[in-house]
Amino acid sequence: MLRFFVLVLLLANAGYYAWSQGLLLEWGLAPASQAEPQRLAQQIHPELLRVAGAKTQPLAAVPSVPTRAAQQPASVPASLPAEVPVAAAPQAGECLQAGVFDEEQAATLRRAVAGLPPGSWTLERTTIAGRWMVYMGRFADADALAKKRAELREMNIPYDRPASASLEPGLSLGRFSTEEAAQRGLNNLAAKGVRTARVVQERTDAPGYMLRLPAADSALRAQVEALRAPMAGKALRPCN
Questions:
Q1: What is the pTM of this model?
Q2: Which residue, among 223, 218, 195, 208, has the nearest Cα to 93 in the 3D structure?
């Protein structure tokens, strides 16, 4: 029974294929043709058809865009400079200071800087710390001083003149900011054979002054550095 249905299905497919391909046309069995001229024959009054389109309007004139060269002026007026120089931004001042100056030095410096711009400088009061010294002297005369210098040179020990006239004729073998440091220096010299030196206070605490430039530009700095004598050898340095 199943074989019968399969056979019928095959015969039906074969018949449809022959009908669709026009193989049965001579027996009057074929699908309706869609090719020309049959399609034209099916049209109803084609001569009455008209194409409806929008009325064509002329395009508005588009303004021409000038090129980059056309946008530029033909020439630059002679009164205008080709380039405008840009002013350099002012540099911020730097805080500088110098010192310490003693009373006499500060009085000389104050007169020298009086011509600088107001508010560009100050002299601030501070303290000149006392100073201690390993000292040899006072010697009886110049011959005794010369003999002691020769001995120190042989021992390879440096020396200097004391800053105070009250200690002349004498020799300084080292200066220190505290008495304790000076005592240690004396002990080191004693280990090298120095026997007659002692520790003295060369200078007591004294009032002093610091020159301060709160906002010094290069011009102000040059003016102050030109005051060599009033600056007493003190150099400007950044503020603490």
A1: 0.45
A2: 218
